């Protein structure tokens, strides 16, 4: 007594490539880069470089200040909604270029950064790029 198997049509599944390339869509890239827990990955931490005797104290302090400012700007940007990051950041702090044009002490105050480990006396009246104001 074998029950008869009903004749079912066979189904074939084929995948179609997406209409939008992954490199052209911010949303698709964000979905692809999601962490397995559902939370997006935090931006990579800035690695401290070993200082050699070749750089001056000014260059080392400027490089460290640039890293702190870049890290803070990236942290703030990643906390804002992706589509409105630049606009919301500029409402609160001004544009990124304007912050980098400010004197470093003013930029640190505006971004609420702790400058205890940086010799700001060496960087007095200097902007992010090392140009004197």
Task: Describe the protein's architecture and organization.
This protein is an all-alpha fold. The protein contains 5 helices and no strands. It has helices spanning 26-32, 57-79, 85-93, 96-101, 104-110. It is rod-shaped. The protein starts with 25 loop residues before the first helix and ends in a 23-residue tail after the last helix. The model is unreliable at 37-52 (pLDDT under 50).
Descriptive keywords:
133 residues, mainly alpha, rod-shaped
Please write out the topology.
Blueprint lengths: L25 H7 L24 H23 L5 H9 L2 H6 L2 H7 L23
Total strand count, please?
0
Distance separating the two termini: 96 Å
How much is the average pLDDT?
Answer: 78
Strand content: under 5%
Structural class: mainly alpha
Low-confidence stretches: 37-52
Helical percentage: 25-40%
The main β sheet shows up as: none
The H/E string reads HHHHH
Number of helical segments?
5
The coarse silhouette is rod-shaped
Rg result: 25 Å
Quick overview:
The chain has 133 residues and is mainly α. The protein contains five helices and no strands. The N and C termini lie far apart (96 Å).
């Amino acid at each position: 007594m074998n029950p008869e198997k009903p004749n079912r049509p066979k189904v074939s599944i084929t995948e179609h490539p997406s209409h939008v390339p992954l490199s052209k869509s911010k949303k698709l890239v964000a979905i692809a880069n999601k962490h397995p827990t559902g939370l997006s990955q935090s931006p990579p931490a800035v690695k401290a470089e070993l200082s050699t005797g070749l750089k001056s104290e000014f260059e080392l302090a400027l490089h460290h200040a640039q890293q702190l400012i870049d890290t803070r700007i990236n942290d703030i940007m990643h906390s804002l909604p992706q589509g409105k990051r630049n606009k919301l950041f500029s409402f609160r702090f001004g544009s990124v270029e304007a912050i980098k044009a400010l004197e470093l002490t003013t930029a640190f105050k505006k971004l609420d950064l702790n400058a205890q480990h940086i010799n700001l006396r060496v960087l007095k009246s200097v902007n992010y790029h090392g140009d004197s104001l």
